[in-house]
Amino acid sequence: MTQPPTDEPAAQSPEELRQQVEQTRHELGETVEALAAKTDVKARAKEKAADVKQRAGVKAGELKVKAADAASQVQNRLPDPVKDKASQAAEHARAKAAGAGHMLQDKAPEPLRHRAAQTARLVRDNRTAWLAATGVVAVLWLAGRRRKGGT
Fold first, then answer.
1. Which helix (H) or strand (E) holds 64?
2. pTM across the whole model
3. φ/ψ (deg, to 5) at 149
4. Rg of the chain in Å (alpha carbons)
5. Is the Cβ–Cβ distance between 138 and 85 less than 8 Å?
6. ∠ CA 103-104-108 to the nearest 5 degrees?
7. First to last CA, the chain
8. What is the DSSP letter of 148?
């Protein structure tokens, strides 16, 4: 029986041979574990999904802070008449939404009511961003009217 070439010198005693065999078993076990980990697609996909989810959460937090800053800056720069108009529009929208909500409660199927409630919570939780967006839309609308020659 011929031995394959190795980097290690041939064992001089049975004890050295046992140690070499044990070392080879250990290395082989590590190699098998590494290969098994690479072929575990489900575990790798879960790890990747968790990583992406974590990065998305961080990015969402950053964007929320930027949106709040932008909203604050826009609100601070808006003239009082525009703020008043936006406030009136928001109040009118709230009244219409309340009326629509009552009608929705009476006539809509359960899945649609559930989705509407989720959307309302989202708007309520991000009120500053929604108000800033409304203010920006109002400013743009007024600027467009002035350019066209409106009042």
1. helix 41-77
2. 0.33
3. 100, 10
4. 33
5. yes
6. 125
7. 102
8. T
d(CA 13, CA 85): 95
Q: What is the percent of the chain with per-residue pLDDT over 70, rounded to a whole number? A: 89
Mean pLDDT value of segment 110-115 = 78
> 3: alpha, beta or left, given left = phi > 0 and alpha = psi -120 to 50?
beta
**Which of 136, 142, 141 is CA-nearest to residue 72?**
136
Kindly tell me if the per-residue pLDDT of 3 is higher than 80.
no
Q: In the chain, what percentage of residues exceed pLDDT 90?
A: 7
Other beta carbons within 10 Å of 23: 11
Helices marked H in the chain — which ranges? 14-39, 41-77, 80-107, 110-125, 127-147
Q: Measuring CA to CA, how many Å separate 54 from each of 59, 60, 63, 91?
A: 9, 10, 14, 37
Q: What is the pLDDT of residue 12?
A: 81
CA angle, 6 then 9 then 14, to 5°: 110
